[in-house]
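Lab notes, practical 5.
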Amino acid sequence: MRFIDNIHYYHVYNRGFGKMKIFKNAKDCEKFLKQTEKYSKKYNIKILSYALMENHFHFLLIQKETNSVSKFMQKIQQSFGMHFNIKYNRRGPVFDSRFKSKIISDYEYFEEIKKYIYSNPIKESLKAGEIHSNLTRAKVEPSSN
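Output from the prediction step:
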């Protein structure tokens, strides 16, 4: 298990295995978000912002206990992966690898990541030529310093 320091802001993200679509419809998004809510409570994680695209996701979050981000992400990816494989009658990994995380060490980087997460679904949809409202969910909460 990867050790992640106590009480920090993180940008956490991952994508589908081989860039495969992991959010094929609104129901997939809803399932992922329900699991996110469940495990964020269990592991004392506060989600400040998120974005789900067809083949990847981003979180801006606060970890309040040592190593809780690792446990949180392990549970989300494991439970969503099992759901996805059963639903789509497939086997094998759903995510490309372990999640990636970057610690946010200053306010400027925090604001940059917040804007990036908010605009990422819009940019991805524009590349595809249309906005898929059921796949481009984003949430941004005001920062409270």
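Observations recorded by the TA: Strands lie at 8-15, 45-52, 56-63, 100-104, 137-140. Residues 107-128 form the longest helix (22 residues).
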